[in-house]
Amino acid sequence: MACNHWLMKTEPNTYSIDDLSNAKKQTTCWEGVRNYQARNLLRDEIKKGDRVLFYHSACKEPAVVGLAIVEKEGYPDTFAFDPKSKYYDEKSKPDQPTWFMVDIKLEKKFDHPVTLSELRDQASLKEMILLQKGSRLSVQPVKKTEFDKIVKLAAKKSN
DNA sequence: GCCAACGTTGGC
DNA sequence: GCCAACGTTGGC
């Protein structure tokens, strides 16, 4: 089965692509998603081997900064069980977890990130969820054509 | 820092 | 079930 494509947002102040690059095995769990629509994707849709656009949000220059691959499919977000975690949710129980996460592994950090404004310049990317007004979904599906286009834009900038 | 848009909460 | 109030996201 063909892999699917996703975009995951992170605030670089909290967790950046350099953090992922420096992580053990360049792999991390993607904890802390507390939105039901995104949860459903993490729990049900995102599969091992799927490809991910790694996006920096709420920063000086919002951009797709690299690529990652799903290493481990949806499993309970254990941070929700830890009262000391900022992601603690008393309503989520280990025997019936509310929140889920996946593990992702760095595939490539772009030499030249593809900025939000560059994405907006592309007619072929007009339908991306990321670019829709008011869209704030932190884990979102991306079409293969969109994914490939963005990879191509990043490669082009390296020339 | 501002503020529009969105999601959640909770009173009724 | 409605909807106002509130908290959060995230571009600018």
What does this structure look like?
With 159 residues, this protein is an alpha+beta fold. The chain contains four helices and six strands; from the N terminus they run E-H-E-H-E-E-E-H-E-H. The longest helix is centred in the C-terminal third of the chain and has 14 residues, at 144-157. It binds a DNA duplex (12 and 12 nucleotides) through loops.
What strand line-up does the widest sheet have?
Answer: 2-5-4-3-1-6
- Please give the CATH class: Alpha Beta
What characteristic shape results from the CA principal axes?
globular
Number of strands: 6
Secondary-structure-derived class:
alpha+beta
Order of helices and strands: EHEHEEEHEH
- DSSP helix fraction: 10-25%
| Residue runs with pLDDT of under 50 for 5 or more positions | none
- Overall average residue pLDDT: 95
Radius of gyration: 16 Å
The CATH fourth-level homologous superfamily? ph1033 like domains
So, CATH architecture?
A: Roll
* Distance between the first and last residues' Cα: 33 Å
Q: What labels would you give this structure?
A:
159 residues; alpha+beta; ph1033 like fold; globular; 6-stranded mixed sheet; DNA-binding
Question: In terms of topology, how is this protein built?
Answer:
Layout lengths: L4 E6 L6 H6 L4 E3 L6 H10 L5 E6 L6 E14 L23 E16 H5 L18 E4 L1 H14 L2
Parallel strand pairs: 1-3
Antiparallel strand pairs: 1-6, 2-5, 3-4, 4-5
This protein binds a DNA duplex (12 and 12 nucleotides) through loops.
